[in-house]
## 1
Amino acid sequence: DADVTQTPRNRITKTGKRIMLECSQTKGHDRMYWYRQDPGLGLRLIYYSFDVKDINKGEISDGYSVSRQAQAKFSLSLESAIPNQTALYFCATRPSGDTEAFFGQGTRLTVV
Amino acid sequence: AQRVTQPEKLLSVFKGAPVELKCNYSYSGSPELFWYVQYSRQRLQLLLRHISRESIKGFTADLNKGETSFHLKKPFAQEEDSAMYYCALGGMNRDDKIIFGKGTRLHILP
């Protein structure tokens, strides 16, 4: 089955470290998104990409960067992790011409 | 600006009782509204979307443009309905994002 896969599933890192979360998809969708989920705050959009050369900031992009290495891959980096970036991170894809989003399993990141 | 409001953080309902999860939205164009569900330790998955007008797992939702609402309803709650529910708003314009509400945790009491 075509899927959206996130790696790693869980990660603990120290304050100040650089960390990369990866997302790959076999759905052939051109749009990809990174969200973070926090209790009581729901899902907030970090970055999104319509294709390899089109990357856009979401509502909470500060402290994060992204790379769209190929249509199928969209990586999220924390340049210098801080404790309030502890959250559950979700990657999602969406085909052009439709509005339904498909989510990865999530990456639980803890910054200590 | 796109905005989705889910006023209830937690909703506790007895098994067999009716369920209504509220969602209001703000959008200047032609919106597409969705309900996503997240069961414990699982990824978000689409429950239903307003354009399909179908019932999934007994849930229905009607888009009310006058009240800018898209409330999720089920006449008889089941224990397996316990989950986190997110209302989401998207559009067909190229630049449109998918915006989620803060979510409502539905807890079905035995």
## 2
Amino acid sequence: AQSVTQPDIHITVSEGASLELRCNYSYGATPYLFWYVQSPGQGLQLLLKYFSGDTLVQGIKGFEAEFKRSQSSFNLRKPSVHWSDAAEYFCAVGAITGGGNKLTFGTGTQLKVEL
Amino acid sequence: SAVISQKPSRDICQRGTSLTIQCQVDSQVTMMFWYRQQPGQSLTLIATANQGSEATYESGFVIDKFPISRPNLTFSTLTVSNMSPEDSSIYLCSVGDGRGYTFGSGTRLTVV
């Protein structure tokens, strides 16, 4: 069964500092990987996704993520954080199974940005 | 990508009652998904709803508690039945396949 681990429950960074959110997955084949952001009271917004090809994926809002098969990781990065990036971030792995498709989410990382 | 309209956006309900959440998509989709996000938790898949067949429920979720309808390729409903305070959560619908998923804005349910 697929699973996702986000080891950091909370992260605090200063505005303008760089950011890396960790994500490790477990899946038997090549996974489809996603990062979503959820602002307070809002739904989920897709930041970026990886299916195949270039292991460095660019997303919206200046985010990028790198797929490392050897480490089963898909860490999210941003070179300079803005106060508006404060939100909860979810890593997810997708799978196409015999009965359909499903996403499995990590437990999320709450990002706080200090001004 | 598809645009999803989900309603209600929030509700406060009495225990023992039921609430039906609606999800409307602006295009035809094969599969729709219903998730639950309990306070401070991640998202957990409740069930997958395909048009013309019964929904497929994940472990820990049963049809009697969370009946789902999928009358056509653009619409689905999730009912939370006989509610208790433990059902207080955000419920989200989603559409997509292994290559991408879009989520509704969610229904924030409080059971008192």
